[in-house]
Amino acid sequence: MIAALGQLQWLRPDWLWALALLPVLAWWWQRRRTRASIWTQAVDAHLLPHLLKPSPATRRWLAPAIAALAFTLAVLALAGPSLREVQQPLWTQDSPLVVAVDLSSASLAADTPPSRIARVRVKLASLLAGRQGGQVGLVAWAGEAFTVAPLTADTANVALFLDALDPDVMPVEGQRPDRAIARSAQLLAQAGFQDGTILLLSDHATPAARAEAAKAKARGYTVSALGLGTAEGAPYRTAGGAIDVARRDDASLQDLAAAGGGRYAALGESNDDLATLGVLDSRRGTGAADGAEPGTSVTTRQDDGYWLLLPLMLLALLAFRRGAPVLLLVLCLWLPGRDALAADLWQRPDQRAHRTMQDAEAAYRRGDFEEAAKIYADVDGADADYNRGNALARQGRYADAIAAYDQALKAAPTMEDAIANRRAVEAAMKRKPPPGPKSSSGESGEPKGDDDAGSGNSDPSSDADSQKKDPATDQDHDKDAGDGRGGDTPAAQDEQDKSSRSGSDAQNGTDNEPEAADAEAQAAADAAQRERMREALESAGEHGKSEGSAAADATPESADERERRVANEAWLRRIPDDPGGLLRRKFRIEYERRQREGSTD
Question: Record's PROSITE patterns (predicted)?
């Protein structure tokens, strides 16, 4: 005990000054107690000792002593007594990153072969591939700054635009890194981030850019710079046709990084420059200011003041009226065993319904359809009735399933899923009489196929699944917890999609033929393409017959219609992807809008 007291430290020692109030409180207590006596107001003071019998001293000072002890314990707990050291893991969080790329004509300079912009594309690809977590955004700038990709955790979505980064997409020429920094900070603010990193890719920084970097730092954002090109520079042709020389100004970029609280590095062959800038790891921790690595732990003092709360609460019981402490103890002993009831008391009706739907979904997924139907019956609404119908259909209780679908359609007459599944169950009832309910485990009672019906499976759930996804067997049933139902296409449609891909691949094969091919070779290629399409369509038709569950109510697609659709899809695949053209039109429209609104200089 003595050794432990020797380790005692106070984490918040200023609270100990509150103990100086004890004498003042004792004087106030005594004065208030004296004035509160009714006899002091009716009898002279010199007669009171002869008329009143004083209470025992222990009883007279018991209440003030308890109050003083409670006050002392509260102050000591607030002061944070610490008797030991503990290892505390550092809290970490992913930090967002906005990359601002220079797409002015200077990016075509060849001082870093083959060109600056080509090296930038490779560097950005390495950054997106090697960055660990955190959202990434992309901004392109020249005389104006435009958003290429907003902040997103899907770096692959940002990588789609790398090949389209070219000065040709920019609607206005110039070099305004200040506007790039301002636009990047605006992206971070719009996404709700209080801090983040802005990485400017440029060969120099202007005084206006340094001012914007200081503003971004004041808002909590760090501005770093990655230098493009070389100090010797290289000539390039401007948009107006003039020849100019682009050189990297390391001094101005270092000043910009210092103003923005970030770092500076010149673009290199390896990823050492990105590691120097610290943009490959998005994690940040509470020990970063002390030089500790995020994800590690530090030694800190343990606050043991909470132990003083136990005697403090026992003393607080004495302040209650007679009998109240016993009632409070009974309540404290009863509530922990009623955690579920306590949770229900604090939940809204929609929250309780949502939790019930989740329980029913879990039962459905494990194949306990009987239990799922019972739980769905406890929830009101079209979605619950629709899912209950699915669970009843999986048990073979067709009539009850149709009644559940009718109940859902009564609340939501336009629910297409319920209409389709109801028709599928009716079709199954016509093909085969309803079997008895199967066990909840799903191992027996499963309706078998009916050869005369021309279907591979007469289970109504299979018919329903062929039109809409079954909540128990498809990933899209996760949506049932929110809206209660999911969607799917017939199994035959999947094969049609495969034939579409086969046909389109064949069609794309002809695209690779040179335009100067002779007519005979082209005709042979077209004939081979038509033959492959015909085989794919026949294969899809045969597979659709073998699987054919949901074709009872769906309008079949004729061979001519299917061939025309596949041909249209093949021709659509001929249209080349042009993300550069998309960016060019997007930036042009945005620039014209800014000019109309007067938001450009």
Answer: TPR, TPR_REGION
